[in-house]
Amino acid sequence: MNILTGFIIFVVLMNTQQQVYVPIVNTVIEGSPAEQAGLMPGDKITSINGTIIHIQNDFAFEMSRYTGGEIAVGYIRGGTKGIASLTPMKGEDGRFLIGITNSVKDLFFTSRITNSYYMTLFTSKVVIISLGDLITGRYSFKEMSGPVGIVQHIGEAAKTGILDLLSLTALITINLGVFNLLPVPALDGGRLLFLLVEAVRRKKLPPEKEGLVHFVGFALLILLMILATTNDIGKIFGG
């Protein structure tokens, strides 16, 4: 229901827009990596290093995670698939670019639904990848926000307008939905994991052992919330 709510909010947001940027090449900057790799106006970007690109957010997110080296950009030109190998260049603002501008597409009823669906998938993907980045150390746990930080962000979004507030609401509700489905004890995903184990074993697990595992998981979640709240308070008073 959290994920479905996020999807519905995106549908509402899409109905406030007449056009949206899409991962289709509009122009190719002269001398850029894109030009050298042979990309042309009208090419539809379909993947980056094998990761499927559905919407402009997918493209921007993959480029934001670029750390160096050559990338493979999949595209469709006139119904024919191709792959362009190139090395992104660093722009004046520090971002890595391939040297294209994106096209703008008019939104209709079906495209609004489709874009909302892909925005929901995109947000869910970002939640999972971000969690993985925290675990692997790509990002510090000090960057994680808890209830206090979320309230602060909601307040800031409310000041900028209802659309920003709705966007943040969609992010938060999808975040909650995806997180709750993780196979972690004390979460619904953990319970589903136990049901799967019981189905494979064809035997119920001892209730006391399952309860102990869920208790430990719940305690760890409380510790995680305390850590996140401590980070939030530190950001507020530490500037």
Describe the overall structure.
With 239 residues, the chain is α+β, with helices and mostly antiparallel strands. Helix content is 56%, strand content 18%. It has helices at residues 2-14, 33-37, 56-64, 109-136, 147-160, 162-180, 188-201, 207-238; strands at residues 19-28, 44-48, 51-52, 71-77, 80-86, 89-90, 96-97, 100-106. Strands 3-2-4-5 form a four-stranded antiparallel sheet. It has a two-stranded antiparallel ribbon with strand order 1-8. β4 (71-77) and β5 (80-86) form a beta hairpin. The longest helix is centred in the last third of the chain and has 32 residues, at 207-238. The chain is globular. The chain starts with a helix and ends with a helix. The mean pLDDT is 86.
Nearest-angstrom radius of gyration?
22 Å
Series of H and E elements: HEHEEHEEEEEHHHHH
Q: Poorly predicted ranges (pLDDT <50, ≥5 residues)? A: none
| Silhouette | globular
Question: Based on the structure, what is the oligomeric state of the protein chains?
Answer: single chain
Strand line-up of the largest beta sheet? 3-2-4-5
- Give the tally of β-strands: 8
Helical region count? 8
Q: What does the average pLDDT come to?
A: 86
Strand content of the residues, in percent?
15-25%
The major beta sheet can be summarized as: 4 strands, antiparallel
Look at the helices and sheets and give the structural class: alpha+beta
Q: Portion of residues in helices?
A: 55-70%
Give the terminus-to-terminus CA distance. Answer: 36 Å
